[in-house]
Amino acid sequence: GFIGSFLVNYFAEKQWKVRAFARNPIEQKSLFIKHYAFEMPHKVEEEAFIDADYLIHCAVAKYSINTPNSDEVNIQGTQKLLELSRKHNLKKFVFFSTMSAHEKARAHYGKHKLHLESIFDLTQEVVLKPGLVLGDGGLFTTIKNTIQKSSVIPLVDGGKQPIQTIHIEQLTQVIELILEKSFSGSFYLGEPTSITLKQLYQAIATTLGTKKRFAYAPSVLVGMALKMLAFLRVHTDITNENLLGLKALKPFDTTKSSQQLNIDFKTYEESLQELFQKNS
Question: Does the bond joining 41 to the residue before it have cis omega, within 30 degrees of 0?
């Protein structure tokens, strides 16, 4: 995936020995990367845990009509990884959760992530709760591509939802710091002040040097349309799961994490400038 691939390359460039779990392992020319076939919940090679120091778990089975058992897969898969990590005495287990995981979460993604947070010993292990990760991939790229190719951008309920962002490189630096300093606990990662989704969309359009019009899209109608398209097996970039997650977004105070890690989280404007300058 987007974050996992970035982490593999980042640590390999620093000459860490990386054991990369992938559903479809690829041949890797780097001397510092070894791939292992992996699929939750049960296809996990125990050999990879021998003499390992850390495990970073950002794999997830996404819920859909075709994968209705994804919650069970995620729970069993994570429990298996945690069991093997403890058995082989890894120094640190880092679990990727999300700001979407909270008591009012409505999507499967947020609900099962919140449930999984409870199985970790936060005196020993780490739960990361990042906001929207900005980089070359993931949901951000889907948003950017939508803005690039569309003249009119629909915004669910006007794009009033609060959102916090974090640059992929800063997220990676946080993980490296946590491993090297052996921090434990739960960390909210993202800019301190939330913005609205519409503000983010407008900023992306401005950074791309294009003017876009935005249309109000009632969440009720969007939900009905997405459910119908899913029933008809029509692929869409945005799913009803995404919509449920969007409707339950809420801001979080990241000050404590910022102070613990001694890091100032970049604003969405700073992150966007860096990303687009890098790609220009």
Answer: yes
